[in-house]
Amino acid sequence: MNGPVLQSSSSVLRPASRLSSIGVSEILKITGLAAELKRQGRDVIVLGTGEPDFDTPEHVKDAAKRAMDAGATKYTALDGTPELKEAIRAKFKRDNGLDFAQDEITVSAGAKQILFNAMMATLEPGDEVIIPTPFWVTYADIVLIMGGRPVLVACREDNCFRLTAEDLARTITPRTRWVILNSPSNPSGATYSEADYRPVLDVLVEHPHVWLMVDDIYEHIVYDDFRFVTPATLEPSIRHRILTVNGVSKAYAMTGWRIGYAGGPATLIRAMAIVQSQSTSCPSSISQAAAIAALNGPADIVRERCQSFQTRRDLVVTALNRIEGISCRVPKGAFYTFAGCAGLIGRITEDGERIQSDTDFAKYLLRSAGVAVVPGTAFGLAPYFRISYATSASELEEACQRIATATSRLS
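Request: output the structure for the sequence above.
Response:
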């Protein structure tokens, strides 16, 4: 009889050192835990996912069906079909007053891949990337994977979680390669008007070695007559070092179609194409056909859905501000609230446990109230918690009531 097979140390997986400082995002962890509780029969309301609850518009799905019927199921041009690039060029001109040539446009499998390609194409070990907090966690992790150093700059609530020119100027060093700005913001819903952007752009004008990456993915989800603007429009003198990132996921409820795009200088776009050629190659041909229909199609449905998001925003903000110990600013865009819970730190649960952080509070809500939220710590700023209100009004009302009840039981 054969004896047991001994596993040699050389056969044990040795993860690359670049993974030592990153992990699965807190958002996915919380969503996974909530899903597991649901499988166990618990009644859980998940407010952690940044995904519209609306379906992809019918005319977009019809375009995908037509593409399949026409046999458009082969490889396409590496970083986007000419037809999709034309639709993107028209969108930038129509919505932002920006003229891009075809070789200044790139298309990837989601906006996240755009960010990844750009960082892979430009960062050397030790290069610094300035990221205002609170921030979408992927920004920093991508920088770390590339051997760069995320430089996190805390943005004060009394400035609506926006980066100030003074903080930016203090943070720039000779190693700074990029600044990342996201408006409207995930997770805070913060927005930059022309007046907000101007002093920040003035600083960048004075530092020609620093490039600007602008994440405009929530461009069309804005409220209260806020007028969206993007830096490449406002400061043409530095447009040759701006990458303007966008996609169809949020505005058109196309998260699963995985199409992101960007406009920027041709030299950068070519370098990003090299990266993409050795990773995913072209985006899905069917998804590209659908994205053309989304970008060229009617805008009415986007405006209607934005109005629905605004109604839900008002519901959640009003409910949270009625809860003693919680305060919530009114976000001007995206579909998140970023509420402060400093007034609850130090309180005691029914089980005698002390709430010592926003992470403790989020765990308490999941365990005690069956509501999944994401702690602000995950986004680099505490003590806050993020709620995604991209779900039904009835679920939001129930969730807010549960949060209020659970909070009232703290002593």
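The chain is about 40% helix and 15% strand.
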